[in-house]
Design goal:
alpha/beta, Alpha/beta knot, seven-stranded parallel sheet
Length: 149
């Protein structure tokens, strides 16, 4: 069984983060980057990775969810939420689509509704409770990849 990963981009505040997300997604073997809502983004930071990573666009979260579920994927919300496991403790067993929250507000209630489970990134410093979305994606994708390869 081939275990695949997807990154779902919805409601990202800074459009230039999509290019950097694509770079991380390419580095960690993501199958496809799924854009929901706005189709445009700034490729700054991608360093050419956008030519190696397929992009797919959906108008709504529900359409994206249907596509993901048709591929027998779990949807993992990356968020500090009730019941969330530390990413390094979650036993990723099947294909997974990762939904990361907005840089300022995290995942919305609508985004949380489509998630099958949640993981968070343990942090050990006391200066902040959040990471840049591209940094968070890189950490989560690295852990997922460690279970696959």
């Amino acid at each position: 069984m081939v275990i695949k990963s997807y990154v779902v981009v919805h409601n990202i505040a800074k459009r230039h983060n999509v290019g950097t997300l694509a770079r991380s997604a390419t580095a960690f073997g993501v199958t496809e980057l799924i854009l929901v809502g706005r189709r445009d983004f700034n490729a700054f930071g991608s360093h050419g990775s956008t030519s190696h990573l397929p992009f797919r666009h959906f108008h709504s979260l529900l359409d994206a969810r249907l596509f993901i579920k048709e591929r027998d994927c779990d949807i993992c919300g990356v968020e500090i939420a009730d019941g969330a496991l530390p990413v390094n403790e979650h036993p990723f067993k099947k294909s997974t689509a990762f939904l990361l929250g907005n840089e300022g507000t995290g995942l919305s209630a609508k985004e949380c509704e489509i998630c099958d489970f949640f993981v968070y990134i343990p942090q050990y410093g006391s200066g902040t409770a959040s990471l840049n979305v591209t940094v968070a994606a890189s950490i989560v994708l690295h852990h997922f990849g460690g279970n696959r390869f």
